[in-house]
Amino acid sequence: MASDIIMPQMGESVAEGTIVRWLKQVGDTVERDEPIFEITTDKVDAEIPAPVSGVILSISVVAGQTVEVGTVVGRMGAAGEATGQSVAAVAVAVAQPTPGASSAVVTPAAPLALSKPRSEMTAAELRQTRSTPVVRKIAEEHGISLRDVSGTGSDARVTKKDIEAFIASGQHSAVAAPPPVAVTASAAAKAPAGRVDLGVPVGVPRVAVTAGAADRVEGMTPMRRTISDRMIQSKHYSAHVHTCFEVDYGRVDALRRKYKDQYAERGTKLTFTAFLARATVDALRAFPIVNSSHDGESVTFRGDINLGIAVALDWGLLVPVVKQADEKSLLGLSKSINDLGDRARKKKLVPDDLAGLTFCITNPGIFGCQWGTPIIPQPTVAILGVGTIEKRVKVITHPDGSDSIGIKLCGYLTLGFDHRVIDGAVADQFMGHVKKSLESFDESGM
pLDDT tens-digit profile of 195-206? Predict the structure, then answer.
């Protein structure tokens, strides 16, 4: 019996996915759990395995198409069970859609709060309540009312393709997104309980760019769009301040060299990142405010330390999360960090691997960066940036008080923190704790 191949659910908040490429074609024989196509969402890129063993009978969604979760993208079964539809045939069908049909119907999000019963709402109003977060966000960024957009989805719902076509048509040019409102002290004082909703902006209006004859234009991938929106959101929302400390890695380097073979025998590579993670976790225990989240009105102190380790990829950036890092030994941290990094590069992460972040470490130092000013991932309140580790000439003070010139293995650490939540003194004390832990690392923890 033939089985459907569906667009999988890659997380609670993921409503749709884009097929990047098919790894198998119609007529190919595959084993169960063998990767058959690759997808990208706003959460994760992944290779999707075959649900059963058999032959690819048909492919109904071609590479580049975005469809809702649960959409049938192909079929599998026994050899000869069906002739199947080739990718080329599907491409022709996509290029010549039937009137009113949609190739990408997106699952509706939770309904908006309604000001009147659905029975009294117009078709345009119903369309607006059924749109997805992705569609509503695009509309908001461009100052578009969904009531003005003709929907081709189920029950005339506006799909992502509909809103993008509306933008391309230029019909929205007369509608501008409302500018940010400057809140004065007097306005804030008059607000209930002394608070004003600042309306954190997500995304920014697009800037017109004219392409020359020799230029190449590429659309942003879903991952790149997500990174873009989150960076803008965080810079608008948090009061970013940075503090930078230099660390002597001599102690850590000696321990790493001493124990790296033992760690290799236990199945993991002992890197500087594991030591940094251990020192960071200890400092987060000592300064729980740095392991908190802020929603504009209250601070939530996290019970677990879920440590994100940013992984730079050829196609973007991911931050897989080591869950309950405070309960892991140095060996456990090393194994978790290496496993998550390896699966990120192989596109084997699942949404849960990216969820629950309470604090993040990013390491541009692997590319030679001395130090930087990292952006805080929301809704956390701080991020640690790691600079390159290198030999530097330093003045060495001996026990008798005399000085000499020597070579030290050093690097900079930068803490980006939200000054609304964390005072500068606390941030510096936190960094001092990390520095001390690294420079006098306890060998008993190996």
Answer: 444 444 444 567
